[in-house]
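Figure 2 data, in text form.
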Amino acid sequence: MTTYLLAGGGTAGHVNPLLAVADSLRERDSESTVLVLGTKEGLEARLVPERGYELLIVDKVPFPRRPNKQAVAFPGRFRKAIAQVRAHIRQHRVDVVVGFGGYASAPAYLAARREKVPFVVHEANAKPGLANVLGARSAAGVGVAFEGTPLKRSEVVGMPLRREIVDLDRAATRSEAAAHFVLDASRPVLLVFGGSLGAQRLNEAFADSWGDVLEAGWQLLHVTGERSALADPEAPGYVVRRYVDRMDLAFALADVIVSRAGSATVSEVSALGIPAVYVPYAVGNGEQSLNAASAVAAGAAILQHDGDFTGDTVRDTIVPLLGDTDRRTRMAAAAEHVGTRTGTENVVAMIDRALSAAN
């Protein structure tokens, strides 16, 4: 019987691939033990117990970005976090540690190394986080979601995806999806979304141009985000939703997608072979642009800068794409070569190799 310790959290970008791998390990061998290491503050504190896994707690110790009181206290607090994880590893007789980034991963990597337990790193973003940069130096295996991610000794394994995405048959589900959103399954659909909170830039652009999309013969499914105050014109063929809890049905209906470029979004859209226009979120270190880079380079997607994205962009760039069937067909074919639905299996295989090499 094997005991796995999966470390990560903070955001959905870390928690969701972790849970996909956890589910796969549990389904493969019900006799094995799958534990999750996280903090009290992260999203994992709610999602992990809800999925039926035991959450082991480690202190949240952010890496200092500037010299201040937190920087002075960091070494002692970080040593304590490592000690907490070492105690978890010993108590539960952990055989392998798998890290997905976030605050829990850095102490997990160092604790595993000191306990002589093999560990594996998975990086979901094209621009790796500091914890995974640290862990990759001595990991038994390093998997990345995107080609070109600068991590030592890494291999492209793809993103562990939600089961409802992996198993989605878009053609077979299209009629159900159209009925769910009250749209016509026989007519093409442009799906626009910006995450659970929405994307103001996308909302404003399509508030100005939704009529042009409809005039092009397309329907528009616009997920504006829960905080959006965008008015719904209630026009036939234009469906406005604040939030969608069945994104698998939205993907089943989408013939083209306009969205942000989070790592999970790019991975899911590419895996499903849907042509995309990505408008990366401008705040941060440019990681969303990097996430989209491989899809854009392959011809599966188009990149539009956030600051330039307006209703005119929709009219000048997206509406012509909607009318170009040949180009959309080429983009869909390219997406299938960029994306993969086997990210979970690839990560599990990497874990198995690490265990075999340690025994």
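Caption note: Residues 97 and 137 are 15 Å apart (CA to CA).
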